[in-house]
Fold this sequence. Notes:
Blueprint: E1 10-16, H1 21-32, E2 37-43, E3 48-53, H2 57-66, E4 71-78, E5 88-96, E6 99-110, E7 113-121, E8 135-140, E9 146-149, E10 155-161, E11 163-164, E12 169-176, E13 188-193, H3 203-210, E14 217-224, H4 242-251
Antiparallel strand pairs: 1-3, 1-4, 2-3, 5-6, 5-14, 6-7, 7-12, 8-10, 8-13, 11-12, 13-14
Amino acid sequence: MTTTLLTEPIVLEFAVSMAEQSCVQSIKRTVNALDGVDACQIDLASQRVVVQGRVPPSSVQKALKASGRQVIVRGMGSLSDASGETVAGVCVFESHQPSKIHGIARLVQAGELCVFDLTIQHTHLQRPPKDASDWHVYVARSGDVSRGPESTGGLLRHIGQLNVDSQGYGDLFTELKDFRLQDSIGRAMVIAPALPTATMLSHQEKREALQLGPGVLAGVIARSAGAWGNAKQVCSCSGLNLWQEDRKLQQSSVL
Length: 255
């Protein structure tokens, strides 16, 4: 399958488990085999991998995980941002009963474009919503997800259509024009059936639209670290190191 590449190059920083120099060479071969990679820098001592190019973050992460390694996205940034003030964001889609992480979207403002990369899995996504042909991603008016999508106050912006397989795994990779990530930090992101209009919807219109099908998810867009902006090795909340915290997170995730 051909990977859709970015218009503008970005820089991606990962923490990747590695023990010796042979690991470095193996990781370099894995990354350089991907379309759109311009450069790959690996530091064994800090277990850090920095990738530059037009390759989607999820493609790099998926390839490294397929090689049997622990992989954590530590930051993203834009090479074209002359000010050096790259804005990066993340949105985690989580159900509450039971508590499970179903997906994650990563965003980075790359010049005039906002790069959007989402991976998600939910059993309800295996079947099309009632009276609708597919699932879509939207930015909502508010960040209140106390009652899931219903409390987000109406839909503000259409992001795109999810590509979903028969197992309920979906992804969406796109570049957004006329979209400033800075203005969406703190707002919710919603996965819902195709709505009857591309314009902004009122709360009542959104409630009616969301009744088209089950399994709708929501998460809040939060600011995340840019490349080289996250040097944390131990979580201050749990006291766990980077890899222990990642294993704990994986236990609550369906991805």
